[in-house]
Amino acid sequence: MNWYTITPLDVLLFRDAKPFTPGERAWAGSVFPPNGHTIAGALRKLLGDKRELQITGPFLCRDETLYFSRPIGFVGSLPLVPLAWDENHHLSKQVLWDKQKPCPLVKPSDCNKDHERQDEAIGDRKFREYLPSATIERYLKTGTIDREEWLTTDQTEIKPWVVETRSHNALQEGTRQVKDADGYFVENAIRLKEGWSIAIALNQTIETPAVIQLGGEGHRAILQRVKVLDDQWHKLQELSQENFKRPGKSIAYLVTPGVFERRDSKDNHLSICRAWPSEWKLAHAVNGNQKIGPLVSVATASALPISCRIRDKDEPEKSIPAPQIFAARPGSLYYLNQPEKLFQDDLVKDKGQINKVNGWRQLGYSELLWVHFDSKSIKKESQP
């Protein structure tokens, strides 16, 4: 896999999954960072439609450093833990919770109040929303993130882009009045802040620099090979695989949008909007007939809308909008009693058939980094 950066030359338009027709719905929303379908569409225009693409990302990049969405399972700089993993917590014998849902997350039982007060005094405005690869590397090694690594004086690490709202008017001929039909609509454009770019890895070697057309209206961007990013990602992958092989409690850290399809008893794949993979059954049972799995708890946020298109087999240049998909947000954390891979990671199914769901992984969705859970490191982090 070769790593590249995509640096916009202008604003970018990444429409959300909601239907939009000027005059009927006068506001065109935009999402960022772009999803794997958008990236693949831009690259196929450059490489040719028949190329088989495998993408990792997209992530954000600055100064030849990868940046990742912050892990959601933190309050300030304090990591949360499933209540079932903290037997000494005062809520363990007081709280009644629905066993058909993931276990509640709580602050560690021995968390230091001074630590909390210091976080509250700092305020949310100084906590990074995007963390550099060096911080994520230490997170994979230790399972914790020090307060100093959360804090920033650079506001671009909180939100590296701005949203520019642009209105469009069409006037009636011979008048200064806006047309009644299709005469007015508003759209949100994305402008990356100076020094920031989008980073992706490809299974293709591309001669760079190259110009690609990205997003709505085909705004141009520069594709540039950055070899330094290869080593950064390789280190993270090595640590992740080591943690995956270690027995015991672990945390799966989702770094790209997670699209999880359900597999039924007949081995059919059904699209479903879920915050966690359906094959990860809950670790706690309501009745004796329920199958026990590894999943204890989940830390996530609002879902991301993914807009896809269905291409014509005979005429690939033609396509129609596909049903929208809602993906789990990057930064989501999954707490498991033991690591377990996703069935969509397999290119081939048990019977030798091609696994169609693997297509989501080839476009960069559902990328997980594994963290070994050590209660001792959590306690050390929560103390002064």
Largest sheet: 7 strands, antiparallel
Number of strands: 24
Domain count, please report it.
Answer: 1
What average pLDDT do the residues reach? 84
Low-confidence stretches: none
* Helix content range: 10-25%
Structure classification: alpha+beta
The helix count comes to: 7
Describe the overall structure.
- The structure is a single chain.
- This protein has helices at 36-47, 113-122, 133-142, 147-150, 228-245, 358-362, 375-382; strands at residues 2-8, 27-28, 55-62, 65-69, 74-75, 78-79, 81-82, 105-106, 130-132, 161-169, 184-192, 196-202, 210-214, 219-225, 250-254, 262-263, 269-270, 295-299, 304-306, 309-311, 319-321, 325-327, 333-336, 368-372.
- It starts with a strand and ends with a helix.
- The protein is an alpha+beta fold and 384 residues long.
- α3 packs parallel to α5.
- The chain is globular and about 70 Å long.
- The protein has one domain.
- The strands form eight sheets. It has a seven-stranded antiparallel beta sheet.
- 17% of the residues lie in helices and 27% in strands.
- It has seven helices and 24 strands.
- The model has no long low-confidence stretch (mean pLDDT 84).
Topology:
Elements lengths: L1 E7 L18 E2 L7 H12 L7 E8 L2 E5 L4 E2 L2 E2 L1 E2 L22 E2 L6 H10 L7 E3 H10 L4 H4 L10 E9 L14 E9 L3 E7 L7 E5 L4 E7 L2 H18 L4 E5 L7 E2 L5 E2 L24 E5 L4 E3 L2 E3 L7 E3 L3 E3 L5 E4 L21 H5 L5 E5 L2 H8 L2
Parallel strand pairs: 2-11
Antiparallel strand pairs: 1-12, 1-14, 3-4, 3-12, 4-9, 5-6, 7-8, 10-11, 13-14, 15-23, 15-24, 16-17, 18-23, 19-22, 20-21
Helix pairs in contact: 3-5
